[in-house]
Design a protein that fits this description.
Distance between the termini: 40 Å
Helix content: 40-55%
Order of helices and strands: EHEHEHHH
Largest sheet: 3 strands, parallel
Radius of gyration: 15 Å
């Protein structure tokens, strides 16, 4: 578990180069640093059940979500529980096993 209480991953509407999967967000999930992310590229779809997702460029809403995450322990615990479960399903070990299964099915 991380000492961080929140992982903030904002994405600017003018930034064309965002990390679609966001390993940083996944690391935040596993470290139980409740993620707050912008709904950019695939982030909203990927992390919709594991993070607080805010529309891209909505800076006031994003800031409010970070503040709530930092000041509301019950909310943070609920997000962390969902995030941690998500993170456990996407470890390198799990991903490698899925890939091996797909390859074997094609052989």
């Amino acid at each position: 578990q991380s000492m961080a209480e929140c992982l903030a991953y904002p994405c600017s509407p003018v930034n064309q180069f965002t990390e679609g999967w966001s390993c940083s967000t996944l690391e935040g999930c596993v470290a139980q640093a409740a993620p707050v992310v912008s709904d950019a590229d695939a982030l909203g779809d990927i992390y919709k059940d594991a993070a607080t997702v805010i529309p891209r460029g909505e800076w006031d809403l994003f800031g409010d979500a970070v503040i709530r995450t930092l000041t509301d322990p019950a909310f943070r615990a609920e997000v962390n529980a969902r995030a941690f479960e998500f993170g456990k399903r996407h470890t390198w070990k799990v991903t490698a096993a899925r890939m091996e299964s797909l390859i074997r099915a094609r052989l």
